[in-house]
Amino acid sequence: MALTREKILDTAFEVLRQFGLADLSMRRLATELGVAPGALYYHVKNKQELLTHLASRMLHRVLVASSRRGRAGTGKLAIICGELYTQLMPVKESAEVIRLAIALHPQEQGPGHLDLLDILESEFKPLCGSSAGLAASSLLHLALSLIEEEQTRALLTGAAPASDPPASYISALEHLIKGFTVSPSTPPGY
Amino acid sequence: MALTREKILDTAFEVLRQFGLADLSMRRLATELGVAPGALYYHVKNKQELLTHLASRMLHRVLVASSRRGRAGTGKLAIICGELYTQLMPVKESAEVIRLAIALHPQEQGPGHLDLLDILESEFKPLCGSSAGLAASSLLHLALSLIEEEQTRALLTGAAPASDPPASYISALEHLIKGFTVSPSTPPGY
DNA sequence: ACCTGAACACCGTTCAAGT
DNA sequence: ACCTGAACACCGTTCAAGT
Questions:
Q1: Does pTM top 0.70 for this prediction?
Q2: Is A168 in contact with B134 (Cβ distance < 8 A)?
Q3: Among chain B residues 26 through 65, which have CB within 7 angstroms of nucleic chain D?
Q4: Which is nearest to A138 in space by CA: A89, A96, A173, A100?
Q5: DSSP secondary structure letter of residue B74
Q6: Quick check: A124 and A136 in contact, CB under 8 A?
Q7: How do residues A98-134 score in pLDDT, each as one tens digit?
Q8: Inter-CA distances, B115 with A51, A128, A147, A150, B93, Å
């Protein structure tokens, strides 16, 4: 029965998934856990830290789901982008939570967005060399922005979001990847 | 002395610029204007509408500044991206405010982000035809994300932000533009 | 160590009533 | 028409005091 950081994160995730960011307050979380608001602060420094942990958790799931879906090097970027969409889309405003977390602490943190950025960067390395870092963060930024746009569209219309990434999402990310890919010095005719 | 929507927006902009989004509350705005909180609601529907108007205003300034800087068609995209950075950077969390406004009402509104998107799209038309719309929104999304990242970095370090766009910002956007640009059917050798 | 009770300093929004 | 006063239903965070 004891309150635990994991249990707080579990219910936080569930509240976010079902009701969105506006309903994810410390007080709401406390009542949901049958506990006084102040109790949360024994397990979590503040709301921002909680959101950061929540974001790490969600990105970690994306990574796990991606690694289950393929081992090949070439299609790895596409797989991760796809899983980003399918994992995040059903959780209301998850893209915003993740962008908040990325913005608020650009360099630190264990599992989460740095893991993802590292993997993206290593996938970009053979494609564009020294620009791989910039390419990785650009890809993540654009993917999250497009997902966020799609999520708010779904919130406004009230419709259930499409579970598969739309063509425009895939197309935009492919164009970005292409833009960062350095063309081989020997043209394809040779 | 009469309270007016313009006057509210003026002080809202000033509060945002100096103190950031966390300090931009309806109550703070009211005291800053020497007025009761409820008085604001006679001129503005709610806080969200206020933020939307504020975003439109800032994007409009970007457009005005861009049109003063050049008439040529080819470098127009670069000019707008540059003005986005230099105009938004000094206003704390302005990129977030604009993204919020874009997310919250994707289709409507008079001056503001639709004007900007239309112009970006018309600039992309000769470069990539039917993908111009997607290219335009991708470019805006990425630019705002990068600016937002830079702004929060500046907030955390407390340092004054660089007034000129950093090389990584320019490089990332150029790669994106390149990725959307369809290569001419006749290779450059001919 | 872990949690409650209660407070502090705030929010956005509404609405009768005043002028 | 425009604004005040006062309320309603909330926030995040802290901290003595209890167990």
A1: yes
A2: yes
A3: 34-39, 42-43
A4: A173
A5: T
A6: yes
A7: 998 888 775 555 556 779 999 999 999 999 999 999 9
A8: 34, 34, 23, 21, 21
